[in-house]
Amino acid sequence: MLAILGASGHGKVLADIAELTGWEKIVFFDDAWPEQENNGAWQIIGDTQKLLDNLKLYDGVIVAIGNNKIRQQKLQQLDSAGAKIITLIHPSSTVSRYTQIGLGSVIVAGAVINPDCIIGSGAIINTCSSVGHDCTLGDAVHICPGARLAGGTVVDDRAWVGVGTSVRQLIAIGADSIIGAGSVVIKDVSSNTTVMGVPASTKPH
Fold first, then answer.
1. 90, CA 20 to 30 Å: which among 21, 22, 32, 130?
2. What is the pTM of this model?
């Protein structure tokens, strides 16, 4: 049985992938329980603490929370408690056998990951995005739908690469940075920085 922490729209995507990859019984946990009891077709049966108290009942656990920092924190909490954290890879994605993917990550439908990439734990490689050869992605990053990373890109922990973004080869994107949707990144992005536009530049304050 698979437990998913985070009853969100993203959680529905993970549950769907889980079913497609052979998981027959899937339940959700969310801190909105018991006010919220269902996430689409799936039942919510408890909150974070209830999951932590019953980890031995589950053959696999994954976190479905879009916020990168919270997702990482929850994964670390579950890992410290001995959860059997899994990775989910959609059958329609294309993932090189020469790529490494950390536990708790999810590869969504249509995504392409080329050879010799290293992807950390808790990453989201979202719908129809692509990760070029020799890219290195840190923990809890989110490569949003339709984003394109050219070869040799480095994306540090918890960075967010927005929908439809294009990133030139050999670019470094710092930790906790945000790349706005539809941006074209042609130079390195510092940590804790928001950039957007074509070409991407620092968001004015």
1. 32
2. 0.95
